[in-house]
Amino acid sequence: MNSIEQLLNKSQWSVNSYLNKDASEEKIKTIKSPDILHIATHGFFIPEKENEKTIVYSKDISLASDNPLTRSGLLLAGVEKNMKGNASRLPGEEDGILTALEVMNLNLDHTDLVVLSACETGSGEIRNGEGVYGLQRAFLVSGANNLIMSLWKVSDEATQELMIGFYTQLLTTKDKVAAFHKAQLELKKKYESPFYWGAFVLIGR
Known about the structure:
Elements (H helix, E strand, L loop, with lengths): L1 H9 L14 H4 L7 E4 L2 E4 L9 E2 L2 E2 L11 E4 L21 E3 H4 L9 E4 L7 E4 L3 E4 H7 L4 E5 L5 H18 L2 H15 L3 H4 L2 E5 L1
Parallel strand pairs: 1-7, 7-10
Antiparallel strand pairs: 2-5, 3-4, 5-6, 8-9, 10-11
Helix pairs in contact: 1-5, 5-6
């Protein structure tokens, strides 16, 4: 994140960074339509067939079996307070789990790009005639025009290289599609396997 922030600052971008304990669910819910929203954290998606016994920290997924938007989300600062059996969370305090359902209520009407630098953020549940229910649908519904997300668990090192390459190209070309493609090609030179450079995809309106 520091490398990306430095790149943007050099190009006269105004950057607000929220790291460690400041990267909270409360903070992300107050953000209003940044040009780019970059989130680097852990993502999750729990298929319906696994919902009977799976628990993500404080959320009993079996109680949300009918809504895939509550079985997909991002883990943010403070989530450790909400591990099952931990009662340290204060009344009214967010639980640190930003579900796709909650993402739909974010204010991203004028956000050009959301980058989800996390594992499996492109996963979701396919419903006939309605597409994929998950984080990708949620961020587009919230107003974002474009979204970069991952389709499987990714290498942290390769992801960092891809993101730095993408922003470097974006600041030069001003073209998201070209910048993303170029960054993937550059990463492919180092890592032959698609596992490293093929996990992330760019979608948009």
